[in-house]
Amino acid sequence: MHHRLRPLLAGLAAGAMLALSPATPASAAGTDYAALGDSYSSGVGTNNYDSASGSCKRGPRAYPQLWANGHAVASFRFVACSGATTREVLSGQLGALDSGTDLVTISVGGNDAGFADVITNCRLQSDADCATAVSNAKSYMNNTLPGRLDETYRAIRSRAPGARVVVLGYPRLFELGSCGFGSIGEYKRQLLNGGSDTMSAVISARAGVAGFTYVDVRGRFAGHGVCGATPWINGTTLPVTESYHPNSSGHSSGYLPALNSVTG
Q: 39, 200, 243, 248: which one is catalytic?
């Protein structure tokens, strides 16, 4: 009887000690998550924003907020801002990072290349003007943007040395084929999609050099661009700032699953 009780009592004692032991930091504290970047991260296009975020237009339907809602987070610092360039990430967003940051997400580069102006040009001007605008943007992407991204990525690593950094790319904006009256012509849509592809290649390469995880979202958005049957990207709309940005479905069905594919 006593011999049989000893193992049982020992097991109960060990269980009690485990119950009293503090949980591991990861299970107890959750993830310290910081979301940096531009309008594609802040949620512009979802038409639902936190008024406290002002012109940054951060919203509850943006993929960073959706990710935070679905995971155990100890802290969530959502500082992505509409219109942000790499310079503005450096000057205004890195305060969200520290040595305890576990996860950083970022989308940036489109505003550096002036891609919104390129789209406007292609919408309003001739095919030749559109081709020139896209060519100039590609030249910037290939020759100037890499250095800007390198500087930004180095600063992120310096501020958050232990974090996993996930760099999310941009989708192709358009589907090809027939589209509604007043839409951008197919040739121009091809040009603009080519600009998106160049941007993706540059960002992917620089993220790789930095040791960051790059997430290509183009495959997930395939079939859901502007002119698609079920678009996840707004076409020309009002207010105009919503145009050519992912809508709520683009964040919940495009960007969020893409991020989950590398974070779990």
A: 39
What's the average pLDDT block by block, 10 residues per block, for the chain (264 residues)?
40 40 48 99 98 98 99 98 99 98 99 97 97 99 99 99 99 93 89 98 99 99 97 94 98 99 96
Residue 140 CA from chain centroid, whole number: 21
Structural domains counted in the chain: 1
Tell me if 7 is assigned to some domain. Answer: no
Q: What is the pTM of this model?
A: 0.88
CATH code (residue 203)? 3.40.50.1110
Exposure string over 158-172, b if 16+ CB within 10 A, otherwise e: ebbeebbbbbbbbbb
Please give the residue range of the domain that contains residue 176: 30-263
DSSP states of 61-94: TSHHHHHHHTS-EEEEEE---TT--HHHHHHHTG
Whether 245 is a known active-site residue: answer: yes
Within 8 A by CB and 6+ apart from 69, the residues are: none
Residue 112 in domain: yes
Q: Is residue 24 part of a domain?
A: no
Query: Which residue out of 224, 245, 248, 251 is catalytically annotated?
Result: 245
Q: What is the DSSP letter of 233?
A: B
Q: Please confirm, yes or no, whether 55 is among the known catalytic residues.
A: no
